[in-house]
Amino acid sequence: MNEDLRIHRSFTQSIYSKLVTSFPLFVFSLLKTAKMSSSTAANQVRASHILIKHQGSRRKASWKDPEGRVISTTTRDAAVSQLKLLRDDIVSNKAKFDEVASRYSDCSSAKRGGDLGPFGRGQMQKPFEDATYNLNIGEISDIVDTDSGVHIIMRTG
């Protein structure tokens, strides 16, 4: 019986010793990960957009024009004109951003009302990123030119 007690104590001390030395490192690791996650989230924005592609867009196809026939014949000026009209309707409350995006955007995000979700620096084309970070939440950009086409952006978070 004494031997069993000695083995039990030895085993318990061994476990306790491992916990005492490992637990602070584990807690530190968790806290460090949480801090990194929160700082990453703090540096992210969330946005929705409406993209109108045109002849100069890097990809001519879209979810609503898979062959790129309409896009290939749309000038940049025509795309900008269309986007300005859409923006005016949204800003004057004649239309809702998400509904306009769902109907007119050439981006696959149209299926989500233009929502791109959260993103950080370096994840989007530079003009798009800069415009988004310069907006206040709920604000809608002027026309933004990228290699993808022309956009209006609404910062949502």
TrEMBL record:
It catalyses: [protein]-peptidylproline (omega=180) = [protein]-peptidylproline (omega=0). Transmembrane segments: none annotated. Residues 42-157 form the PpiC domain. Pfam families: Rotamase. Coiled coil: none annotated. Keywords: Isomerase, Rotamase. It comes from the Eukaryota. Its EC number is 5.2.1.8. PROSITE patterns: PPIC_PPIASE_1, PPIC_PPIASE_2. GO terms for cellular component: cytosol; nucleus. GO terms for molecular function: peptidyl-prolyl cis-trans isomerase activity. Belongs to the PpiC/parvulin rotamase family. Prolyl cis/trans isomerase with specificity for phospho-Ser-Pro bonds. This is Peptidyl-prolyl cis-trans isomerase.
